[in-house]
Specification:
The chain is of the alpha/beta class and 456 residues long. Helix content is 38%, strand content 20%. It has two domains: 203 residues, 3-Layer(aba) Sandwich (Rossmann fold), CATH 3.40.50.300; 216 residues, Nucleotidyltransferase, domain 5 (2-Layer Sandwich), CATH 3.30.420. It is elongated and about 80 Å long.
Length: 456
């Protein structure tokens, strides 16, 4: 079997534990697309071959049945065919692969999946362990290894310090300090790159695009966990946003401009009430100039220079509508406008689209889309592509900088991100509008399709 040295190191340790009935639990962190799934498939193939006469069950669980479990099953079938077992292996019940008397069973670790009753007497594998619920593993999967003191392997990439994978890793490191038996294996992108120059080029481009401090780069390629929640941006990242170009109040020259619009929640104005920004969120338009780098640049991601802000507090959307149309259409001639179409913003976005056509893109905030917007905002900041106009002493500048400083982040177990300003600290209207203008720039200059690396 052609395994890379780091894959072979893991395989050797697992096979030795099985053959000596040690019942060890291993944790394996390999950078994204570094060959973790190939390692697993080759182990399964080898074990089916070793036990095809004696018999026994190996079990692998994945966070979802579709597509993860199905992909794992298909990969094993392909490897069986590659090694001359075509026509000899069989599929049973739709989720088991049998070779002789040995079976590889594939199960889902979804909360609703019924898995109780299965026994693993060869090997128990937990794929993408960072995404498997601890309760599900402890109550339903871990007992599968008890009868035969079966060796267990947790595979994955890190996320935060509360996941099943991270907990298993810390336990293994503590056991290693006591008895010297290696249980945790960690291979970040640099180690994978030593054996694959194409992978190295790909990840270096991702580092340039996202920035080394980006949560996805840190977790998937550097294998460094996110330590809980906390501030959304560091002081260094905020410093990166500060630009030296002047604020503009109208276009200068033939440039491309985009806009991001965050709508305030409408409230009835009380008689005699003084409406001030600290007490009410605003409808905010952020306008940015977009420049696509020259063809000889490393990255083709757009440069985004914020040039103007508009903000209204306490004004009804119906009153603002003609003014907003005039600003983005007649003043800035915006090529793309991304507007918050969540809740009360939906009808206003619809009106804008009727007036301006396909230039207006509706953005509905969900857990998934807000996470993507947050990651894209971080990538634009980390890579130095997003810059704010120079300090001009304006309320707009001060408010945005305050929101950047006060913004908090929460990293969820499902590897999504939420970013916000706590109500006790103010509002996040400028921050949200900034995230939307980054989306508008991305829509103006579509990115190269992100696919998996071939052959991994």
């Amino acid at each position: 079997m052609k395994l890379r040295p780091y894959q072979a190191e893991v395989a050797k340790a697992v096979i030795e534990s099985i053959q000596a009935s040690l019942g060890l639990t291993f944790s394996v962190e390999i950078a994204r697309q570094g060959g973790k799934n190939e390692l697993s498939a080759h182990l399964e193939l080898l074990l089916l071959t070793m036990f095809m006469s004696a018999g026994g069950n190996a079990i692998k669980c994945s966070p979802t049945f579709k597509p993860q479990t199905i992909i794992s099953m298909s990969r094993l079938k392909e490897r069986l065919d590659d090694f001359g077992f075509g026509g000899i292996w069989f599929t049973e019940a739709g989720y088991m692969v049998r070779l002789g008397n040995a079976r590889q069973i594939f199960l889902s670790a979804e909360k609703t999946a019924s898995v109780v009753g299965h026994t693993a007497d060869i090997l128990l594998e937990i794929d993408e362990s960072q995404d498997v619920a601890k309760d599900k593993y402890i109550k339903e999967f871990r007992p599968m290894a008890s009868a035969s003191n079966t060796t267990t392997v947790h595979y994955g990439t890190t996320w935060d310090d509360s996941t099943l994978l991270e907990e298993t890793k810390q336990t293994n490191l503590e056991l290693e300090r006591k008895d010297g038996i290696k249980r945790h294996f960690r291979f970040d992108w640099r180690e994978v790159s030593e054996h694959n120059p194409h992978y190295k080029a790909f990840v270096e481009a991702e580092r340039d695009r996202l920035g080394e401090a980006h949560p996805l780069f840190r977790t998937q390629y550097l294998l460094l966990p996110i330590r809980g929640g906390g501030g959304f941006l560091t002081r260094q990242q905020i410093a990166q946003v500060i630009g030296n170009h002047p604020r503009l109040h109208c276009p200068q020259g033939r440039k491309v401009f985009v806009a991001g619009i965050d709508f305030a929640g409408e409230e009835e104005q009380l008689e005699g009430e003084m409406l001030t920004r600290p007490g009410r969120d605003a409808t905010v338009i952020t306008v940015a100039q977009v420049t696509v780098p020259d063809t000889d640049c490393t990255s083709r991601e757009p440069l985004i220079h914020v040039v103007e802000h508009y903000a209204w507090v306490g004004k009804k959307h119906a009153e603002l509508y003609p003014q907003m149309v005039d600003i983005v259409k007649n003043v800035w001639h915006c090529s793309r406008i991304v507007a918050d179409a969540t809740g009360m913003g939906e009808p206003v976005t619809s009106f804008l689209r009727k007036a301006l056509g396909s230039k207006v893109i509706a953005f509905k905030f969900t857990q998934k889309t807000k996470s993507e917007a947050g990651f894209d905002l971080l990538a634009a900041i980390n890579s130095g592509r997003l810059k704010l106009y120079e300090q001009d002493g304006s309320d707009d500048y001060k408010e945005l900088m305050l929101q950047l400083e006060k913004a908090k982040s929460v990293y969820r177990p499902n590897q999504t991100l939420n970013f916000f300003v706590d109500a006790s600290d103010g509002h996040d209207d400028y921050l949200t509008s900034l995230a939307l203008v980054v989306q508008a720039a991305a829509k103006y200059a579509p990115r190269t399709a992100r696919g998996q690396l071939p052959g991994l």
